[in-house]
Amino acid sequence: MQAITDEIITRLKKVGFTVYEAKTYLGLLRRNPATGYEISNEAGIPRSVIYAVLRKLESMGVVTNIQGKPRRYIPISPTQLISRLSADFNSRLEALREELTRFGSEQETAGFWNINGYDSLLQTCDSLIREARETIFLSGWRREIDVLKPSLIAARKRGVDIVIFSFTRIDPEFGQVFAYGIDEEKLGEIWDHKIILVVDSRDLVMGPANRNDKEQAIWTQNNAVITIAVNYIILDITLFGQRSHVDVSDTTVKLMTRRVDHLDHLIEISHR
Q1: In terms of domains, do 68 and 148 share one?
Q2: SS3 for 59?
Q3: Nearest-CA neighbor of 118 among 229, 218, 216, 220?
Q4: Which phi and psi angles does 119 have, rounded to 5°?
Q5: Domain that holds residue 248
């Protein structure tokens, strides 16, 4: 049976448990149902405080008591606990988002933020994909896209329109995929990994995607830079269509801004 370690207690503390609450829950996972006396011995908690701790865990919905003499306690499963903590965190995060939006100025600055390191880059991309409501335009390599796969599939199920370009092989399950299928290792001999992610035509993450903590990518909501990034993806998809003899016009038009959407019409008028 796994021992109660300082590491797992620290992790529970980070999600809101006290040391005694963490030890009590872990003790119950190891042995249940159990009386307060048994939990006290199992988890190494003073008997003078164990019942107060159990009452607190009951109020949190983490522990349930079984009526009887003596009264015994059982914990919710780890899966149930994680689900409950996740739902509570997301609810509080959404409430904070609304408060900060009301607190901030109506016109946000479209600045640039540095993203330092590979892990932070992927975490930022994953977070933006989870928040996507309308469109996701992504150019990247298989390694990074595989990491983002669960969030991309979830976004597609929400009805988000996804367009992906890659020089490497990408599974078509994400949405519209334009991929050359080049071996990633061979491509890596001549190019570094990179990523361009545009979410809802509002957020752009762009930069190198090498496994290097010293690398820097950018995150911005600057419309001019977002337009340039989208046009870069459009160019890659257009060249893909030409090389592969595939009609990509519907996709490229979809990626264009409203002004560019009507370019053909304006050209036609100018030649009348």
Answers
A1: no
A2: helix
A3: 216
A4: -65, -45
A5: 112-266
Q: Region 175-186: what's the mean pLDDT? A: 90
What local confidence, expressed as pLDDT, does residue 259 receive? 45
Angle ∠(235,239,243) on CA atoms, nearest 5: 175
With respect to residue 102, please indicate whether it lies within any of the assigned structural domains: no
In a domain, 170, yes or no: yes
CATH code (residue 189): 3.30.870.10
- pLDDT band of 110, cuts 50, 70, 90: low
Q: Which ranges constitute the DSSP H helices of 106-248? A: 118-131, 142-147, 149-157, 184-188, 223-244
Burial of 256 (0-12, 13-18, 19+ CB in 10 A): middle
What value does the mean pLDDT take over residues 22-34?
88
pLDDT at 261: 45
Residue 143 neighbours by CB under 8 Å, 6+ apart = 184, 193, 209
Q: How many distinct structural domains can be found in the chain?
A: 2
pLDDT tens, residue by residue, 73-82: 988 888 888 8
Q: Are residues 203 and 124 part of one domain?
A: yes
Cis peptide before 70 (omega within 30 of 0): yes
Residue 99, in any domain of the structure:
no
What is the model's pTM? 0.59
| 27 and 131 co-located in one domain | no
